[in-house]
Design a protein that fits this description.
single chain, alpha/beta, 5-stranded antiparallel beta sheet
Length: 461
């Protein structure tokens, strides 16, 4: 029986170890010793734990203890063993209690080398991890690309790569997702309405129509009913009930252009809407509650109007929560070529004309013109040129100098002072830090402070 046992033991295709209750190796077959780089004599009488990887010894000890406590228990595990030369081998093992030849308790451990399988699994896991990382990277890049494309598309009709217009777009994107009131300032023709539309399109309210009101275009006698609505018979000629623009804009955005043209009486009513979100229709005592985001615009200096008593101070501060100043075209001249080609394409599609070239002389003339009417004037000039175009070359006729006699001209120093003042008002006179006046103007804070001192710019207390 002992001879048959030894024959089976030695010829087993698995590595076999027999240990006593303390883990001392009693027997090991030739395969078990050779796989680890030893002879059977070198392992016999030594602790079986010597050939296990350090981090796995505790698990082996716990499993062998369970076998000794319950003779029917068969322990199974996948752990690491250490070859004599230091290489790590992965093995799948099973262990159970047996009785040695002398009748004492012993533990038989049978092992199968699964190193190649583990390496394959680890290689596969590494490959899957790399694929997952690549997938995450591609997904992040895809999201970024979508955001870039969305950003380009969302900017709609606003064209330009100048630092000045990029600063405006950056501020617009930051505030668009909120419900904060915005005051857009800038000269006539700079694109204040386009910016208001962009803000609305980027907002959470973009599923509803942007409601626009030009406060200067509606007669003063009708502006109140236009904004807040009226009941039938509210005044002579009011033959029907009318819903006002604020009620129409409930859940959306209302754009109040030329806000500086409102009368003091209407300014008070507008303030109530901004403060409480409620108003009454003309001819009705019933209060109407609305949820409206207000974007106002003006080409006037409202702060000056406040100091002169022509605009309510409390309304000004309600509107000026987040100011955005749109720079005039002369402060973003490098955007002119892109704007010109945009307008050329727009009018080409409408007029069925094809323009392929714009002479350098023409473009230079466009770049050297002062553009008092800003982007709107540029568009009108290109439209005239497109109407007169006889071939595929665009020739532009700029307004004569005589037509500009009534336009107030400023020295470079005056223009610089005006621009710096506008930016300081826009940033609340904050010079340093992110989105401060120095950053918006592209200057070092110390340089801006030096310019302010030289130009005599001092904040009024």
């Amino acid at each position: 029986s002992e001879e048959r046992y030894r024959t089976l033991y030695e010829n087993n295709p698995l590595m076999c170890f027999t240990t006593d209750a303390e883990g001392t190796v009693l027997y090991v077959n030739q395969l078990g010793a050779e796989q680890l780089g030893y002879t059977a004599e070198q392992l016999s009488g030594k602790s079986v734990f010597n050939v296990f990887y350090e981090d796995d010894k505790k698990t082996v000890s716990e499993q062998l203890s369970m076998c000794l406590q319950d003779p029917t228990h068969v322990a199974r595990w996948e752990l690491r063993k250490v070859h004599k030369d230091g290489r790590i081998l992965w093995v799948r093992e099973s262990a159970r209690v047996i009785h040695d030849i002398d009748g004492s308790k012993a533990i038989l451990i049978a092992c199968e080398d699964i190193t190649e399988r583990k390496r394959a699994e680890q290689a596969l896991q590494k490959a899957l991890s790399e694929i997952s990382q690549l997938k995450d990277q591609l997904q992040a890049e895809n999201i970024y690309l979508k955001e870039e494309i969305k950003s380009e598309q969302d900017h709609g009709e606003i064209v330009g790569n100048s630092k000045a217009i990029k600063a405006v777009l950056h501020r617009a994107e930051k505030v668009a997702k909120t419900d904060s009131t915005i005051l857009i300032t800038g000269e006539t023709g700079t694109g204040k309405e386009l910016l208001a539309r962009l803000i609305h399109n980027l907002s959470r309210r973009n599923n509803k129509t942007l409601v626009k009101v030009n406060c200067a275009a509606i007669p003063s006698a009708l502006i109140e009913s236009e904004l807040f609505g009226r009941e039938k018979g509210a005044y002579t000629g009011a033959l029907t009930k009318q819903i006002g623009r604020f009620e129409l804009a409930n859940g959306s955005t209302i754009f109040l252009d030329e806000i500086g043209e409102l009368s003091m009486e209407l300014q008070a009513k507008l303030l109530k809407v901004l403060q409480d979100g409620e108003f009454e229709r003309l001819g009705s005592p019933k209060t109407i509650n609305v949820d409206v985001r207000v974007v106002a615009a003006t080409n006037k200096d409202l702060a000056k109007a406040v100091s002169e008593g022509r605009f309510r101070e409390d309304l000004y501060y309600r509107l000026n929560v987040f100011p955005i100043h749109v720079p005039p075209l002369r402060e973003r001249m490098n955007d002119i070529p892109n704007l010109v080609w945009k307008f050329v394409k727009e009018f080409s599609d409408k007029m069925g004309k094809r323009i392929e070239t714009i002479p350098k002389k023409t473009m230079d003339a466009l770049l050297s013109y002062y553009w008092p009417g800003n982007v709107r004037e540029l568009k009108n000039v290109i439209e005239r040129a497109m109407i007169l175009a006889q071939d595929n070359m665009l020739r532009v006729e700029l307004p004569k100098t005589e037509t500009l006699k009534n336009i107030k001209t400023m020295t470079m120093q005056e223009s610089e002072k005006t621009h710096i003042l506008q930016v300081l008002q826009m940033t609340g006179w904050r010079i340093r830090g992110k989105s401060g006046a120095a950053e918006v103007l592209g200057l070092k804070p110390s340089t801006l402070e030096s310019k302010m001192s030289k130009l005599g710019i001092v904040r009024n207390k």
